[in-house]
Amino acid sequence: MSPEFTQGQGAAATMEPQPITKVSIIVSKGWLDGVYPALIMANGARMEGIEANVFFTFFGMDAINKARHDAIKVATVGNPGLHLMTWLGGVPGMSALVTRQMMKQMEKLDIPPIPEFLELIADSGGKLYACKASVEMFGLTKDDFIPQVEDIITVGEFYAMAAGGQIIFT
């Protein structure tokens, strides 16, 4: 979208807001608080009639990996958002405990688990893609991913798909 400018008083110009019609979301983190923001944003976009493409790269691909997508945890070591003392995050079982607590809170808000959320997004017309370079780096194939993954694409293909829309990195 090219912004439209209107001439105001004097030399000042103002940009008229344009509606968002397309978002392309990049997911690079494979922990709960790296995956859920992207899924919530993609789902929200689809609910508003906005085209949504979700590009999973590096450890973010765990969200679409059949063997891992239902076991994603909260990263407790080095996660300043948890407000835990550094050593406490490394205590055995802490990640599982924090993940359980977070999942209980999300369940109260009717936020679905990751596998269900991915299916919901795909069923609503959102598109899910895996990063070709990351797939090759980790020795994966399309068979490793959930059936809702449209394709394995290059970064260039992602940029072409994202053209004219907003790119969001979570």
TrEMBL record:
Gene3D superfamilies per UniProt:
DsrEFH-like (3.40.1260.10)
Q: Which residues form a coiled coil?
A: none
Q: Which organism is it from?
A: Pseudogemmatithrix spongiicola
Q: Which InterPro entries match?
A: DsrE2-like, DsrEFH-like
Protein's name according to its UniProt entry: DsrE/DsrF/DrsH-like family protein
What SUPFAM superfamilies does the record point to?
DsrEFH-like
Q: Which domain of life is it from?
A: Bacteria
